[in-house]
Every structure is written in C-alpha cells, then in structure tokens.
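Two proteins, back to back. First:
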Amino acid sequence: MVEKFRTRFNLSPEQTQRLGSVLDETQREFSQLHLAVKPRFEEIRQRMRLGIRQILNEEQKREYDVMIRDATTSKQIVSQGELQHTAAEYDHDRIQSCPKHQQEGRGGDSET
C-alpha cells in the first residue's frame, strides 16, 4: 500500500515514512477496537448457537457440533496467520511477498 501511494503521488522519502507511520497507527487502532468488541461478538455468537441447538434433534446437534468444531479450527488457523500480519505488512517488500494479500488481489501492483 505504501508503495502504491509512493508511486501514484510521487511521495518524497519523508512523506513515505510519514504515511507508513499513519498506516501503522491505524492498524494498531483497528487491532485495539477488535479486541474491545470481540467479547460482545462472542456473546452474541454463543446465544445464536444455543438458539440453533434448541431447534435441532440429537443427531443434528451432533453434526452441528462437528460443524462448529471444524469452523472454529479453520478460524484459529486463519487468526494465527493474521496475527503475523502486523503494521509492518505495509512495507512494500512484505506486501509483494505476502500470499494473503496476493490472493486477495492486494499485492503491490493492484488498485486500492
């Protein structure tokens, strides 16, 4: 992202550094916000799951439990990968080599 801004707006080295700082701070703020609201999301999710379980018969509940376990495992794997993406991911070299961003079409050469 920094590289895209740098080239598109012909940023000076100082502007590039300052942009990186703004993006780093924004990433920290988003992370803090996520941590602050996560307990409420979990509360709502648990209430939803209890409601769904009340609808299902015993066999369906067992399958639902498997589905939840599979989804939770997949989410943990993704979350662990996301934890590795810190504010430093805005560094041009890391964006270029980051498979997550390349898959999402957010590598250094794509449009924002």
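And the second protein:
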Amino acid sequence: MQFTRRDMLKLGALAGLGGTAVALPLLGKGNHATASGSGGGSRTRTYFIAAEDVLWNYAPQRRNVIEGKPFDDTANVFVRRGPGRIGFRYHKALYVQYTDATFRTKVRRSAQNQYLGC
C-alpha cells in the first residue's frame, strides 16, 4: 500500500477530529533512495502522530508584532474578547509526533520548528 499526498491529508483531517492518535506506515516503492543514499528496494517508515486539542494563544504579545504597534480597530475584531468574539485564545488541533505506539514520549522539535507549538 502506498499513500498519496491526498491520502495523507485525509488521514490528517480524520486524526484532527476528536484528538485521535494514529500510527501511519509510509511505504516507499520502486527505485527510491534509502537513508544511506543508495537506490533500490523499498523501506517502511512508521510515524506515530496524534492530533491534540490545545488552547492556542494567537496573539501572545497582545500587540501587532509585525508593525510594532498595539492592535488597531480592524485587528481588535479578531483578538478582543466579548459578545460575538472569540478573543486571542481558542482551540486548535496540534499534530504531535511520538516515539512509539505507546504515545507517551513526544519527539522533540528542532529549534527551527518551535513556532509550531509544543
């Protein structure tokens, strides 16, 4: 079995519903390069990924850091709390990789990917 990009997106979307954890075997087929760089054969890689529901802070500094200014009236529509407003913190699915099928130990993200969350 080989997964296409579309299959992976579907699996990711399904995993995002309800905080489901999935183990995804990814199969290489044909004359693909292996980790050592040599060609030939196929290799199975299994990734343990969970979609976790987290309360995400979309404006941690409570200001427009791109312009270096406080939020203006237009931006406040999205970050102000109140009737009919969500505010700057709300739920999102955070995809987290684990080391094995126990889903107990998270894979540490590199420094360049820390912005993706915990």
